[in-house]
Amino acid sequence: MATISIEHASKSFGSTEVLRDISLDVKDGEFLVLLGSSGCGKSTLLNIIAGLDPLADGTIRLDGEVVNDVHPKNRDIAMVFQSYALYPNMTVERNIAFGLEMRKYSKAERKAAVREVASLLQIEHLLSRKPSQLSGGQRQRVAMGRALVRRPKIFLFDEPLSNLDAKLRGEMRTEIKKLHQTLKATMVYVTHDQIEAMTLADRIAIMRDGVIQQIGTPQQIYSTPANMYVAGFVGAPPMNFVEVELARRKDQFGVILPAVLKGQPIEYFLPLQETEQLAGREGSKVVLGLRPEMITHNAFGQSSAPEIECDVELVEPTGADTLCLIRLAGQPAKARVSPLFACEPGESMRFSIDTSRICLFDGKTKQLIG
Amino acid sequence: MSNPRQRKQQMSVLDRLQRYLPQLVVAPPFLLLVFFVYGFIAWTGIISLTDSRMLPSFDIQGFQQYARLFAMDRWDVAFHNLLIFGSLYVLFALMIGCLLAVLLDQHIRAEGALRTIYLYPMAISFIVTGTAWKWILNPSLGIESYMQKLGWESFQFDWIVNRDMAIYVVVIAAVWQASGFVMALFLSALRTVDEDIIRAAHLDGASTTRIYIGIILPSLRPVFLSAFVILAHLSIKSFDLVVALTNGGPGYSSTLPANFMYEMAFRRNQIGLGAASAMMMLATVAAIIVPYLYSELRAKHHG
Amino acid sequence: MAEPKTLPGANGKRYLLGRVFIWSLLLIAAVLYLGPIYVVLSTSLKDLAEIRAGALLDLPHEMNFAPWREAWSQACIGVRCDGLQPYFMNSVIMSVPSVVISTLIGALSGYALSLFHFRGANIIFALMLFGCFIPFQIVILPMAQTLGYLGIANSITGLIVVHTIYGISFTTLFFRNYYVSVPQELVRAATMDGAGFFRIFWHIMLPLALPIIVVSVIWQFTQVWNEFLFGASFTSGGSQPVTVALNNLINSTTSVKQYNVDMAAALIAAAPTLVVYIIAGRFFVRGLTAGAVKG
């Protein structure tokens, strides 16, 4: 058992509030990712869980027990740091064993534990080296080893992969996921990389300015983002935001979508489901959230989804898909189409719009309204 | 899997102590410093307000020692000398040091050896430097007589025994000692200049000289400032060099405030006056150092 | 810096002229810097007759080591006539403990200071920094009295105490500036591993600080060895350090001026720091520049 429960946590550095009344529960064995851009407070939250930063207000419980005043070393938590923080003067073996050494394990116990972890991470051949003689990926493994060797009940990761190149990052991501499945330990992982968050997490908590914006499974976060910040943060290329007007045409509720066709402005009407929240708001402005894959080619006119035709300004092939830059309500927007159907820049093209998955945000509060 | 040797969960007294250990460790040396620097400054300040002569007394008399000080020709000369010495010393050490650094930065093969040669005077004590230059510059057997014997009959270089020129001899020896240090400061800063800037400037058609004058040297402003502050405060502290080189002479024509203070406090039983002059020295140093420290620490704080 | 040679068009006569110009300036400077030490060395090897002949810049006719022997063990300083040797030993006895103690204290307090993040830590830092810049004239009068109270006036012990105290500002700042450049995560990682303040210091920080230990030792040694004001103010007679004794020897007016002995004595007094400089110049420069580098 290893659960983390944080209630009403607040923390300031000087006059800047880094955490504002955060409450968060991590279940036993869960992989929770704290996602946000730099300065959002995610690392501070991690350090508070570790006990490295004292908590100003609120309580933190591990397995139900309040640990606000428990020293990091007595929390049974291990942490992997962004810079790896390997001790430069010690060999890999001693680096890994240092935590055990400090806890007065015998030499034999230490040796056995290091062997086990080293073979798990495939770094047995590096044990006698110094950190300066290792590559970035190897250092990363040693840092993981140092956390693993103590068999803690909770693992904390502070952007552990951000110093690796893209290829290695992908590999290590897979390894961390495997590790989590094998160990079934509670893990809290901080990152600013939304792909890492999506691929690793059981649940993601998106933070901004010391406030958690949304907690949910990767799919929830992706398909029903709580607000425009979350919607824009997750997904690449990001969600298109188009400011539109709610309207009713021939008894059909929907929005008016201005576009450009053959250089001339044109308006389309997109029918939408009239929910309770939206009823009676005709004429008011809302922000339409369209992921690129919701604007796609209409192959052979099969789809019954609403269609628009508009000019394509730019074409970006990515291999699997091609991104077409179009203009909606004066704003550039990206559509994701199959390379087979992509047109040339400057031509116009027909797109079908998947209205069932559309997000609508309040223009002022930026919150999801439908 | 739980740790077999898990300690009890509550924070022990030792753990609580851990949080304050950095403060506890800094406290003794810091208190020493407070006492031996700031306490002693206050102590000297108090002595400067008394009529202490041979032994310090604590009978506060007011600012009469300062009044005496400012009325003394000897102090006047010392302070005037400090202005001459300080400005020339800082100026020439900066110029020569900076020039040598730029020259050494031109991919000189023997750079290491030359650097060692320029910098070694900094490892020598001022007393030794003074001794050497005193010998070289003495008119009867030194460089003057050597030149005359070589056939340059009219060669004259008797500054060291000339009332009006003795302080400039101190400048020469001091610049000789410190310019290598300035060179080292600038050279290490030049090595951090971004090479791409120079490449870009070359592509823009700038000559090497122009690149240095127009781009690189202006970017070294913080180094100029640091070097200036260090040299300026060294000039105020200068004491041993004058002792060994001219011993303040001829007469007291080449004394500096530091020598004045020592003379009054240890030779003439004018402790109150010595303390007053020490306070003036401190004030001069503080006028340079305090704004510098303030701006440095503030800049860092907001950085 | 861009390599001038690799730039096309930067060849030919102009380039060559530039090189000649640079090299001549550098060599003239080298001669000027080496001049004094050459004169001192050659004078110390000449006999008095040769010196009086006035050939300052000439090489000695023959190597004459008598002045060195005299300077080391026979020259009269004050009332004693056993040369610079006892004072040289005084300086050794004075330097070693002050260097070792102030470096040890600086290593620990610099580490602790580097962990300060609370408000006002900057003020403590600034107060320490200012301690490096004060003119020591401001402390000699109270210090003379304090040494008297402590019963260590006019003693090498007294000088050790003084040098240690005023060295702490420097050593603390050396170490503090070094440790703040060590990634904070290292301390955090070690804390997670269960190491406390002293164990982090001993197992991780101190081994890391080897270069700055060397810098601190060299800096302190140079400072203490070359120091004159404290030595002249707080000691007299047999307990003087070598710089004070050298100055007394040079300025003694009792006997015929023996310039060669004076010069040999100057070189003897300068030898230890010069040797250190030649062996470990790199660290010496770092010590000098450390004060100029931002905290």
Describe this structure in words.
The complex is a heterotrimer of chains A (370), B (303) and C (295). Chain A is of the alpha+beta class. Chain A has 2 domains: 4-225, 3-Layer(aba) Sandwich (Rossmann fold), CATH 3.40.50; 240-362, no CATH class. Chain A has helices at 42-50, 92-102, 107-121, 136-148, 166-183, 194-200, 218-223, 228-233, and strands spanning 4-13, 16-26, 31-35, 57-62, 65-66, 77-80, 154-158, 186-191, 203-208, 211-216, 240-249, 252-261, 264-271, 285-290, 295-297, 307-311, 314-317, 322-328, 331-337, 348-353, 359-362. In chain A, the strands form 5 sheets. A 6-stranded mixed β-sheet of chain A has the order 6-7-8-3-9-10, with helices on both faces. A 5-stranded antiparallel β-sheet of chain A has the order 13-12-11-14-21. Chain A has a 4-stranded antiparallel β-sheet with strand order 2-1-4-5, with helices on one face. In chain A, helix 2 crosses helix 3 (107-121), helix 2 (92-102) runs parallel beside helix 4 and helix 3 (107-121) packs across helix 4 (136-148). The model of chain A has no long low-confidence stretch (mean pLDDT 90). With 303 residues, chain B is mainly alpha-helical. In chain B, helix 2 packs across helix 13, helix 5 (126-137) crosses helix 7 (166-190) and helix 12 packs across helix 13. Chain C folds into 2 domains: 4-64, no CATH class; 85-290, MetI-like (MetI-like fold). Chain C has helices spanning 12-44, 48-52, 66-73, 85-114, 121-133, 137-150, 156-180, 184-192, 197-208, 210-226, 229-234, 242-251, 259-290. Chain C starts with 11 loop residues before the first helix and ends in a 5-residue tail after the last helix. In chain C, 51% of the residues are buried. Mean pLDDT of chain C is 85; it is low at 1-5. At the B-C interface, helix 1, helix 3, helix 4, helix 5 and helix 6 of B face helix 1, helix 4, helix 5, helix 6 and helix 7 of C. Chain B: Belongs to the binding-protein-dependent transport system permease family. Chain B: It is found in: Cell membrane. Chain B: It is a multi-pass membrane protein.
